[in-house]
Amino acid sequence: MDDRGQELLRRRVPTPASDYAATLSALVGLVRLAERELGAAGTVGVGTPGALSRATGLIKNSNSLCLNGKPLKEDLEHRLGREVRIANDANCFALSEAVDGAGAGAEVVFGVILGTGVGGGIAMRGRVVEGVNAIAGEWGHNPLPLAPEDAPVPVCKCGRAGCVEAFLSGPAFEAQYRMRSGKAERAADIAAAAAAGDDTAAACLGLYEARLARALSVVINILDPDVIVLGGGMSNTEQLYESVPRLWVPQVFSDRIDTRLAKNMHGDSGGVRGAAWLWGAQNSA
Question: What is the pTM of this model?
Fold first, then answer.
């Protein structure tokens, strides 16, 4: 990507399964391939699941388990012979949308990933906010404010019960529909069925909307962002953008709510674009 945000080259390779050394080699290989094809050296930004521990410099909290406890930044810098900037992939998504996406020009952007998992990131004045523990924006592993219809409370992959992710991930939405209908369907197909008038699908989507509104109301009450940008597969459910802001009204501690709920502009490119923007003017050291 150039310094105006124009894409110069895109390459994608499969993530090596459960293999840190192979993952490292794949990243290094992508950088070298890009520089060879473009005939120039560039800065390197990486969006990664999890985050760099401020205590150890090692990756923590990654759902790509082979990265946890590994010195990814140090190893990449050694192999590439230059500084590498690394940030959580949801932070990179938020940064991309804040710089030149759905949150462009906003003071505070909260980026939400509603996909296989649930993640979040914060960009303030066009710059990533990581926090003193490098976990700013990790709303997916906070407990959902519960309502009677949320019982029984599911256990999250992290081992705790009632996490936002356990209710609002794509697989959680699919599981809710499967429990009610006895049929296994993809999240996108359930949402389409709801729009077409299927009562069971519509009931599941309505429950999802109410839960998302409650979860985001907590973010608004604490962070008070200008805009919340949705990413991940569930962000393609158009009904969310009309219903959720209406449903969060009783939960937000304000007489007026100006926070916008917006769909991402860059799709699944958001994370890699935000990684590149880690070297933008406002994010430079």
Answer: 0.93
